[in-house]
Amino acid sequence: MTRRPFVGVEPFDASHGAGFRAGEENEHTVECRVVEDGGRFRIHRPRDAGPPVRLCFVDGVRRTEAHLTRTDSEGETVTGLAGAWGAGAVLIGADGPAAIGHVETGRAVIFSGGERVRIRPHPGGWRWMSLSVDSEEPHAASQHLQRLMRDTEAEIADRLCAEGWTVVFDGPLHGIRRSRTAPVAGYVKTHHRRTLAIEHWQTVPNLAVGERTSLFAMKDERYACYIRVGDPGPWAGPWAGIARLEVPTSSGSGQAVATVDRAARWLPAFASAPHRDARAPVNLAPVARLEQHLHHLLGDSRLALRAVREAVMQHNRDEEAA
Q: Nearest-CA neighbor of 118 among 127, 142, 149?
């Protein structure tokens, strides 16, 4: 199909970054092998799978609430942060409205360089785990905070899989056990590298809402395909409204096909609307609702910063008095 030159406006609000950056060839470009349809790359329109039964969405949020430093008696300084994270699920059963559950939150002070600093709980109810990372890289503490969130998400998703839920995990399948055989799918909203041969990659924007591509094999024992969950509008670029689904190869090719077929038919019903979500339609409405709930549970960021400052001042007074 020949296309005229076109300028599109991404549906992501600028504050969320770009959803599509995969046009550049670089060391991260991976041309994955097509494993369905005899190796021929096709577009599928799965049959109607009926209403979702025991479908759930798992997601998490994290927040750096204060950047910290610690200077020892020799004048050596290491960096750290005070941060919070939360994760949970939106559960959609055969009867009744969607419900948020399995919610977990945490708060920690994390220092690099192997330093561990204990901060006393704040009288206002704020309290922090005391953690350290060995690395002295500038982003080591922030990366550890993200890992805490990802680990919590993975634990929740594992429990729900064991209970027989079809789990849509917001993000790639990092942290999900590769031996998982229950229906689970990672839902990736951004496209930062080309994953297919160029002739297949150029076919993906031809997807209509509710359609998917053939499965292809990724690294780390994952199958994947692309789906279109919604129409972002006439101003958007060709990749807007497209997500990548990931499923573990351990479930077998038959289970993988069944999982992505159901997801391709079900997920468009949960696509968000532009007047409600800056990342519409690819950010699913249950996920947006869960993120909002988790941010609420983490509390006001300004109060969190004030609590950190006061707790650090108390810590320093305790150190001087020791």
A: 127
